[in-house]
Amino acid sequence: MSATGRLGAAIVLALLGVAIAGDALSPWGFAEQDAAHTLEGPGSAHWMGTDALGRDLWARVAAGARVSLLIAVGSTALALAIGIAWGALAGFVGGRTDAALMRVVDVFYSLPDVLVIVLLTEVLQASLIGVPDLYRRLLALVIALGGVGWVGVARLVRGLVLQAREEPWVEAARALGVGSTRLLLRHVLPNVAGPIAVTAAFRIPAAILAESTVSFIGLGIQPPFSSWGVLAADGFAGLRSFPHLILFPSLAILLTLLGFHLLGEALRERLDPRGQTAA
Length: 279
What we know:
There is one protein chain. By secondary structure, this protein is an all-alpha fold. It has one domain (3-21, 58-273): Orthogonal Bundle (MetI-like fold). 74% of the residues lie in helices and 0% in strands. α1 packs across α10. The radius of gyration is 22 Å and the shape is elongated. The two termini are 17 Å apart.
């Protein structure tokens, strides 16, 4: 792996460590208030400063990493599951089935992502009555983001399967009597797994950014729970007087995007021959 790939992997591993540990990395709980030190800048007691309620910003950024990453990984897994199944079926069967399935994809692809995410989030939150607030919002965001992200995955997988099914080894497997389902699941999909893994690496930061955007406008995770979008929204109001409130959540988002981007590029170099040829 290249030096930039190792840097990306290190950032991602550090992010995972912070997400797993959460506010245990701070002597303060993410909702614990220190009334004597409200809206303080970075210092020895609170090295990222505090918010308007005296809550430790480092504890809230660390706790927000867990929420943001959980949403991103969950929605990416959902997008991959739907997209791989849809695209593989369309590409492998072909004909009218392919045409019908891809028309559905085209319809979804033509819709604005942000609008669809907002609408799905609102509908799902209203539907999940009786579920605790945090879990209701988490589930709604996972489904909404996955419901948008699968479209690109489906188009990619369809193209890969269309290309793979014309390969000589597929014809040889058919001649040996391998069934269509086994051929697709045991031979075709494993041979196109590299580009799919690269896509997953790029989908996770995109989902983190989308979750941050939705939470920033007040439709995602809500206080007192913490996500990077919530923290950025809180900090935006005091941007001029207390810049640390938005600086550190924004840096967390930026480092995450950078880490996954570098890791994705490294995976592309190793796993996706098409990316190497294009480069």
